[in-house]
Structure formats: C-alpha cells, structure tokens
C-alpha cells in the first residue's frame, strides 16, 4: 500500500469523515497509477491508501473488493465481473471506498473471504467494506457505478454508504461536472443516498429494459451540489405532486411518456415513503 499525494482544495473540517475514522474505517482508492495526480485527496491524504492495477501484490485487495461487492448485492445478476472492473473501471477511472481491519470482521463474514481461492486472506490486513466507481462520459458528464456497502455486518457502520458516496464525489471532483448520472432501483434504500447529493434528482429514464432489474431500475440525472461539510442536510425541496408505487410499472411508463413529450420529472425528499410493506416514490413534475 502507498499513501496518496495531496492535491489540495478542501479545507473545512468534515465531521462525518472524522467520525468514520474514529469508528475504525480507513479510506482507500483502487485505480491506475496514471490517475493519481487527477484525484483530489487533499483532505484525506493522511489516511488514504492506494491499491494499483499495475502492482501485482495489490491483486489480493482488488479481488477482496470484488467479493465484498458481490456479498453486498447478493444476487449473482448484479455481480461485477473482473473484466468489467478492469476495462471499464480501473483503466479509465477509480474505485473509492472504506475498508476495515481484518481483525474487526465478524467470524461468519470472514469465513466467506477465507474460503475463496481467488486470493489469500493472509495477504490482507484490511478488507474493503464499501465502494463506489465514478467514470466520465464522452459528453463530459460523470457516471456513478456500483455503490455498495457491507454496513449490515458492522454495528458502527450505519452511515458508511452515505459517507462512501460523499468521499467518492469529493475525490473524483464530481461538483466540477455539469451533470451526474447513475442507475438506481426504486425499492433500494440507497436511493435516498443518491438523492441527497443534489438539489434536484431528475429521472432521465424511468425503466431500463436492458438491466437485470429492468422494471425496478431507472437512470437519474443531477448536478452535484451538496455541502461536503454537512451530510445531514437535505437540500432538495420536499414537495411532490403525487406518489407512485416502487413496483408500479404502469405509473413508470406514464412518466416515460411525459419525459418523451419534453417534460421533466424529479424524485423529491425523502425519496422513499414506506407505507407498511409498500414503498412509495414522491414525484414532482417540473416546469417544461
């Protein structure tokens, strides 16, 4: 492992980050050595650890990242293949997240890492428990990919998903892009994490037929303008015109018709409303 160099821009104290550190979590970046100068690790340089595509000994940690990612999503359809991580991830951009000392892992979870033949657990002193990939597009936008966390296994990790998202956005300079896009599921709790990063979370594509979770999956678009000093602030307006069920395909197709006709649709805070077992999504039709 190698400490990251400082690129210097963020100076305000980030209480949420200090809390994460005090709980025993350590920030990491997986990337190519070519991209190190382009990351903003100014605030995090004293703690950040790099794992590099070019460095053979880092293979064990990167394999552990893939396993952590798979354990988080559970469904094999959502697992991140090696070649996708390399070709579409590490050769273009970076993974940013938090790791935890191996000794802090519960035995039942550690068994999953010990039983694999993909890497040697003995080579690792830390194991990744969260991660987010951010990648630029041809249109000069930024795309968020595969946000995950294993928070459910750690009692002090309740905010780790939100902290991981914020860390990745800062390190990859997301606020300098005019538009940020990502894929999310209407019924996934991470929807509220994504939504907190902007004043307006627009639906770009209400359903995504090519995705394994086609009818439950959508593409969102936003401008990243959250205050990195305060992750508790909900900066969007909590106003909506109506609610749709997370599984209501007919309602989503109606949203698609509105968008196809030039309309704009936003999901507003709190992004999900639970009514018993039902998840409702607050929808706002924006001025055209």
- Categorize the overall geometry: globular
Helix tally?
7
Q: Which oligomeric form is depicted?
A: single chain
How far is the N terminus from the C terminus? 51 Å
Secondary-structure map:
Blueprint: E1 2-3, H1 15-22, E2 26-31, E3 49-52, H2 59-73, H3 82-90, E4 94-101, H4 107-114, E5 126-128, E6 130-136, E7 142-149, H5 160-171, E8 180-185, H6 190-195, E9 201-205, E10 217-222, E11 242-245, H7 249-260, E12 264-267, E13 273-275, E14 278-286
Parallel strand pairs: 2-3, 7-8
Antiparallel strand pairs: 1-3, 2-4, 4-5, 4-6, 6-7, 8-10, 9-10, 9-12, 11-14, 12-14, 13-14
Using brief descriptors, characterize the structure shown.
single chain, alpha+beta, 14-stranded mixed beta sheet, 7 helices, 24% helix, globular
Description:
There is one protein chain. The chain is of the alpha+beta class. The protein has a domain at 1-132 and 145-168. The chain is 24% helix and 26% strand. Strands 1, 2, 3, 4, 5, 6, 7, 8, 9, 10, 11, 12, 13 and 14 form a 14-stranded mixed sheet that branches. The chain is globular.
